[in-house]
Amino acid sequence: MTQKNHSQTRTRGVAVTAGTSILALTLAACSGASGAVEGDAFAGDHEGQELNILINASHEGAGDWLAEGFEEETGVVVNVTTVPYDEIASQLTLDQQSGANVYDVSAPWYVSLGDLAADGSIQPITEFVEEHPDIDVDDFIPTIWEPYAYVDEEIYGLPFDGDIHALFYNTEILERNGFDAPPATWDEYAEQVATITENESDDGVYGAAVFGEQSPLILGASFANRLAGYGGEFLDEDGNPAINSPEAVASLEALEDIWDDALPTPAETDFGAGNSAWFAGNVAFIENWTDLGVRSQDPDSGSEVIDDWGVTYLPRANAEDDPRASLVAGFSWVVAGNTDNADLAQQFIEWAASTEVNSELLTALPPTGIDPNRISSLEDETYGEEFPELQEVNASTLHGALAWPTGQNATEAAQILTDELAAYLSGQRSSAQETLDTVQAEWERLLVD
Amino acid sequence: MTDTLNTTNAAQAFNSRRFRKRLPTPGKPRPSLLANTWVLLSVIVVLVPLLYLISISFMTQGQIASGILVPTDPAFSNWSNAWDSAIPRGVLNSLMAAFGGAILTLLLALPGAWAIARHRTGGKALSGLILSPWLLPPIVAIIPLLTLLRILGLTNTLEGLTLVYALINVPVAIWLLDGFIRRIPVEIEEAGRIDGANEGQLLLRVVTPMLAPALIAVGVIAAILNYNEFLFATFLTQSQESQTVPVLLAGMLSERVQDFGRIAASSLIAVIPIFTVAVLLQRYLIEGLTTGAVK
Amino acid sequence: MAVPSGHPGGSGGPRRRGRFTARLYHRIFISPSVLVLLVLAAYPLVFIASAALTRSSLGNPFQEFVGAANFQTAVSSPAIRDSLALGTGYAFGVAVASTALGTVTAVALWRSLHAGAFVRTVLLLPMIVPPVVVGILFGFIFSPSGGLLHTLIRRFTPGSGTFAVLSDTTWAIFGVALADVWEWTPLVVLLVFTALLGQQPEIIEAAQLDGASGYQMFRHITLPAVAGTIIAAFMIRLILAFKVFDLVYVMTSGGPGSSTQVPAFLIWRSALQNFDVGIAATITLLLAIVVTVVTIPVFLITKRLRDD
């Protein structure tokens, strides 16, 4: 196999080395605390073996970092393959289905776990998790743990990248337009966006970049952010679709409210377009993963907004409502269904989902795009010192969060919702209620047996 | 017969006479202002997008967003960034898969094309069916093809992709070669037979040399199709070592920070080699298309 | 006659045996082609047919026989019907546009002073550009933040709003079509132009002696001479347009809404995003039917024109 062999392609030599030395320090520190014996046994077992992992292209930095770190610790060569975020599940499935079985470990979007499990493309790790108390399941952020790990009663994944959105704002633009505080409600948000766009769009500055490209991780995320704010749910307590609820309708209408005032055009705004406008200082607001903050402070990422930004909770329906996180993206570590290397794969994901690794990834430079998955890493001191606001926003996941439906057909369900949202927002549907009624009917077919 | 001979004349005319100096061609209509204007417009329509791509490749994201069309202060960094990325490697991969696949295609297709065109081997059924795989989008065929590559142990390798390219172009190659083979006078083959050559020798020593220009022509067309292919490449080559350039370019579109300038420079790096090949071999390319596609 | 040494004492005279071995050779010669047909046509066709009749996911095809259930789902699904209709309309629109523009350009080239090597080379370029790059390029041109079109509109009519072709449900498909026409019209130009040059001079001379006017000449001599080529070019163009995928993937991802969801893209999405290979296979078969039904008349016309 011609995989990317990490030890041969050290393109980011300096940065990775810096990351590794921090890692080495941390490992030294924690081996003192939690048993050096296990670390050594670990190392002896698999020296010289190889592990192939398949991850999202935007996790490439994290992948390189992990490959280097794991090799350092165990002598295992980790080959990292990256594909666009929406292709992980299909590539992994085709790999397993065709019998090629190249990959041992992957990190797909958590919503796709159900389909992957149903096709046998990933294997349950319930026993492994139960036999290894060191994994410390209780330390995973509870709202993340369940959707990121379980398919029905079996555990298939360990949380890797928490991935909630927060509202970032450009302090300079807000000031210029006479706003002294970011919005607390979606109505205020729409108002501020409209004002700023009206004042400054002739100079190429807009109120907000709204992720609206027709993909569940993009437009779907923008909708989920509002659904969380309006207190809605994808599914009710019994697991039945509740996507045509008044809250859902309000969310879609809130999205519609800012559609025409956003950076043109939302339908074409993907991560690249939105982020670039943000870094260039051309938009006042962007709903984004909390790691955007790390990048905004990094001149090497091309950021022109260093120290000119703030971050807060996503807006709500009413100012006095508690902030509620929306688990819009989020990736889980999984073990491929047909791997010959299940032991090693399990050890890798245990390590990669651990507090130490997660904490390091949070603040590593160049930014890795990873968000907290554990309470302990969320409360990590370095993270708190360097990015106190991000830590605070991320802490909202501790008090309940909105997660996508999981299980079989969940990917298709998310896709259908996204398609209908896009159809409504581009004027192909007559009302928000009718649009979501269509989705509800489809979801009942797909998600309820 | 007259028909095919005509095409030959035409191709020759296209390639030489007309473009060097204007001889009085019988029956040629007089040039008109309208025609000249239209030709000029066509050239502009073709060139403006390409020139715009070149222009973008020298702009920073800020310059592009500010709505200028020609960079006043060219940003060469796009080109150096593109050059230092995986793109050159991807171009090499693409070239290897494209030309390796094309050569294999010719090896597989030539004997069949000759037997079908000259001896009607396989009958109407074969000649009718041969183009059928080309008619439909090949997407669902990915699953069986992946299984095939797994059986051969070639998943996720450039060799596997090359093999798939070799196979998918066989129908098109047979179809294109048909016109050329029919142009070979039957007498030459008969003469070879009388001299005692068997069919294999005939194909190898008589037909193949006569078809040399046609083989180059069809080979170039297959290579260009391969070079530009995207869908199979996405699924058959995931590792960085084997990714082809269209896959890398499409991947750049989902990056988390948009960099039009670098994407434009990368696109141009991808296009330059195949443009060069096409321009150098355009005589063959044109003849392959005109003789092969319209019979 | 060459007689292979491995066949001593065969029945019949040497001539007959020669014919026999020749035929054997021919069989061997076509075997790679037949193998290719088996691998590329028969095997996928069996796979597609089986998938269409079963509940099939990407990782686990052929789970259970469901009969015509997939067909019923597909035929009653507005998304799939719309997609097939869109695909057919797109294919014809693009093929007609390419053929018309291509023919006019070829005639202009034929009647122009400037059809030199430079023009010829320039006209070749678009069809050599990878479709992914064509998509990227036209994405830039249509980009509402600093794209060529946007910039030009702003320059000539300052203060006008944003014109975002690819996020408009009506215009997006035309944006994709424009890129498609840009890429493949040169092929039509090339084919028709060569046919124009290949006309038999005697006939034209005879017509000129008969005193035919320029327009009459064109209408009654030139056009019939190249009609077969034009239709063949149309046919090639039609099939290329039916298969369009790369441009849509790069430029619009099928959006906004479902306004550019052409069949090839829908099949890709069903199989590789939604994991429903059963439906994807069913759409492929339906598309095959549509393509056959709409191309047969064109094919028959081509044949008639060629036989004349």
UniProtKB/TrEMBL annotation, chain A:
Gene3D superfamilies: Periplasmic binding protein-like II (3.40.190.10)
PROSITE patterns per the UniProt record, alphabetical: PROKAR_LIPOPROTEIN
Transmembrane segments: none
Keywords: Signal
Signal peptide: 1-36
Coiled coil spans: none
Pfam families with a match to the protein in the record: SBP_bac_1
Source organism, top-level taxon: Bacteria
Name of the featured protein: Sugar ABC transporter substrate-binding protein
Organism classification: Bacteria, Bacillati, Actinomycetota, Actinomycetes, Micrococcales
Automatic annotation (TrEMBL), chain B:
Keywords attached to this entry: Cell membrane, Membrane, Transmembrane, Transmembrane helix, Transport
InterPro entries: BP-dep_ABC_trans_perm, MetI-like, MetI-like_sf
Major location (coarse): membrane
UniProt GO cellular component terms: plasma membrane
Domain ABC transmembrane type-1: 91-281
Compartments reported by the entry: Cell membrane
Topology versus the membrane: Multi-pass membrane protein
SUPFAM superfamilies, alphabetized: MetI-like
Record-level GO BP terms: transmembrane transport
Any Pfam family matching the protein: BPD_transp_1
UniProt key word Magnesium: no
Transmembrane segments: 38-59, 95-117, 129-151, 163-181, 202-225, 260-281
Family the entry assigns: Belongs to the binding-protein-dependent transport system permease family.
Protein name: Carbohydrate ABC transporter permease
